Amino acid sequence: MAKLPELLLPAGNYEIAKIAIDHGADAVYIGLEQFSARAKADNFSMEEACDIIDYAHARGAKIFCALNIVLFNEELSACIKTAAQLVAHHVDAFIVQDFGLASMLLEHFPETEVHASTQMAIMNPCGAQTAEALGFDRVVLARECALAEMQEIRAASDIDLEVFVQGALCVCYSGLCYMSSLHGDRSGNRGQCAQPCRQKYSLYDVTDDKEKLIANNYLLSPKDISFLDHLSALAAVPVQSLKIEGRMKQPEYVALMTDIYRKHLDALAAAQVINDSERSADQKAMAQVFNREGFSTAYLLGTPGAAMMSYHTPKNTGIPLGKIGKIRKDTFQVTLDEPLCNGDGVALLDKNLQPLWGGYVDKMTDPSGRVAKKFASGDTVVLSHSMTKHEDLGRVAYCYKTFDKNLSKKLLKAPAKPAATVNRGSLAIDVTARIGAPFAISASCVTAEGAARHYDWQSDFIVEASKSGASCQAVIEKGLAKLKNEGFELSSLSISGDDKAFVPMSLVTTSKNQLAEFFAPVEEDAQEEAAAIDVAARIEACEHAFDSIPPQIKISHPPTITVQVRTLAQAQAALDAGAEELNVLLLDAPADPCCSVDEIARLSERVAVICSLPPLVKNLREENVFRSRIQALLARGVDRFMIANLGQAGLLDGLGVDYYAGDAALNVTNDLTAFAYSKIGLTRQTVSLELDRAALETLSSVGNIPLEMIVYGALPVMHTRYCPMGSLVGGRECDRVCSQPCRQRRYALKQKDKTFPLFADEFCNVYLLNDQRYSLFGQLAEVKNLFMDYWRIAGAFLPAAEVGQATRTLIQLREQLFAQASQRKVLPMTPHSTQGHFFKGVR
Length: 843
Hints:
Helix 21 links the parallel strand 31 (659-662) and strand 32 (682-686). The protein has 843 residues and is of the alpha/beta class. The protein has 25 helices and 40 strands.
């Protein structure tokens, strides 16, 4: 077997980080009070971060710091200063989403590893190859990667791979979710996700504009993942790090997950087999601490459907406690399948696992009225409840145990892990303890490298006779044995003098410290000093790099009207309305095909064409499909492309493409990121939809690099591998082929007055579209002052007629704004629309 993977645990605060290390984590990832994708966790102050780095390093563990949000211009300087302080304190790695920050860290802090966050949505071989070529030390793979896809990635790249093995699963690819952002102003890319996927939705068949309800529940809420049974397969890939999710989780969760995964990994390394009953007990304990209707392996073994979802509840369900008996006005009976004691948590649920009541046990009796603090499995107990609605009593179907007090106490009682020691050499010690003379030591040390040194020491203390007549030998042996904790081996210890002498332990401890200090290798301090960095100089170099970014050349000029289309009908409508460039999205669908290579080539004879890759290209098979299409387009003279994922830059480079632009999914939110993308070859860039007007005004176009801005369209708010239609209508599971209802019918998710259309592509990737049109038509006067080079209509998911109407209106509004023609006043289109974050910004 390859080297055992690292066990990487989460920590939302200092105490939890200590727990993870004490229980056996190889590494812990933390977030600071700023710049972290878990802004609602307690997180670490700089002082706490430095303290936990020291604590971890003394015990042979590592600390990774998550700086995994996209940054705004005004945050760049503070973030770099924060990083510099952590590098000076020898943090082991940064986990980064913002490509500009990553580029700065790679260039100016080479001693610290930089890991590409799962927020960068690296999911395929070209993504890993590109990250490796750019200098990243590790990629945290998208949680949607299957085991077979991990093997494809490993075959293509030597970069370290990190894989989530336990914890919450986002239904959307991380970094490509804008639902919380557009519906609550809390950006997942800024660590503020409001978890809209954990809310209720209804699935409707909306074919022919007729609505038929299919299902209504928590349709976007996945179960937590657990790969405990697949550690051997992951180690064989091999992946280098097994990551457990949970910086928002409780200390008991971190302790238990560390214990169980440590045990199973160590057994794997020793070729030991954990029997079924012990494995089952471990899984039950994990479920007791946290689960959502059980666990799933998500996409590890294929593409599942309903089996990976927690449709009934988005919350912790605990484990079944037992069979419910009589339910009265304020009490209920349960015949226990699990032991129960005072302090445990209990919940009553209906048949759909919806909670009706929950609380902690403070008193329980058997049916005869006998009070006890604990009952065993098989006992029948009577518990109190506080349900006030009579109808709820009849709805009770299940009783679950949601908290185990004894398990929690046991998990949090683990002793602190002792500091790791280095081999500083072998000591031969002669001690003299003669009554009436100074306490003295003569010691010789042979270092691990073979060097010999000698030291003689004596105290001011004059040895006295023991009043109790006890021997001093045990005290001396016990005190000097602690030299092992300092990294020394005691090859010999001789004690001469008077056996009945009195030597206080404090004196022996002082002598021990004197020996350790004298024989501590001098070169250690020199190495530490050499490893220290000049924080001020590094920060100054980074600030100089900021200053060297060329300023925006703000010349007022009419922007080019570019229209993103997907189908030939949309393209024709845009051309008929006067589009000056077509952006053809290469996103095919079984019932709604995109433009073919021949059609794109013919369109390019009439107007400038750029072809866009979709953000989801999830494996080598899909990668090869797009590679073939790109090659066919190049052969026909279509040579301009747009990427929506970092890995696609490497794909296009490998095919010899000279002109490629960046789409909004790259999340360009600051000058540094724009500059970094330009340095790797992006010819023009699309600004993030999460920038407001004030932030856009400060964004540099990096000299003459053109900037593009979406001003109208139907936008995806989620990009997901999970298909609601296939799961709830098509019978999709890993071992069952979907009937592909999307070929004949159209579907949408609804929530109150919001309707989110669903679009499934040829590879069963699903795009959840916003319920409103995105429109800045009414704000084009403000948009004009941003000096953008391209105004885009995102028409790929619009009806062809609306594409034409929007194109025609935008051209007329531009002419009106730039006074290029004398004409009647044009009114902007006013569909049900949103201005996104243009005015209100985003958290």
